[in-house]
């Protein structure tokens, strides 16, 4: 339930603030089979997973089944950013990067649902403003640290901190 609420909030934020510049497809519940997720990964420029994951063996628990790094590594990806906002999700980094993802953001340890949702919303609020990923990540960590002294440090980034998902729009006036 917490993952579904987080996903809906992020999809709403992306639609309201980024519109067609960063399209989002929401895939959850029984529709989130391993096959459906693998198909969706292929064409996505942004991948956000919120749910449950395990470290040993690494896997994402889907609405219907599970997905492991070995399935991810089999398909070429063009994603500019993968956010695995779930417990101990750092184990997927290698698979996503080898498959072609430019950036991967995961966690080193278990994170509480509320902390994870607060972090991701703060991250996307900054990314839709056109901030570079490293700066957005720093701002989101700082915001979470003020609320939660443990979970803010769980997030680890692999990739280029200067990546922007959206080019800032020139202000007129």
How many domain units? 1
Task: Give the CATH class.
Answer: Alpha Beta
H and E string: HHEEEEHEHEHHE
Mean pLDDT across every amino acid position: 86
Largest sheet: 4 strands, mixed
Structural class designation: alpha/beta
Distance between the termini: 43 Å
What order do the strands of the largest sheet run in, or round the barrel if closed? 1-5-6-7
- The share of residues in helices is 25-40%
**Global geometry:** globular
Structure notes:
With 173 residues, the chain is an alpha/beta fold. It has a single domain, classed as 3-Layer(aba) Sandwich (Rossmann fold). Helix content is 39%, strand content 17%. Strands 1-5-6-7 form a 4-stranded mixed beta sheet, sandwiched between helices. Strands 2-3-4 form a 3-stranded antiparallel beta sheet. Strand 2 and strand 3 form a beta hairpin. Helix 1 runs parallel beside helix 5. The protein is globular and about 35 Å long. The chain starts with a helix and ends in a 15-residue tail after the last strand. The mean pLDDT is 86.
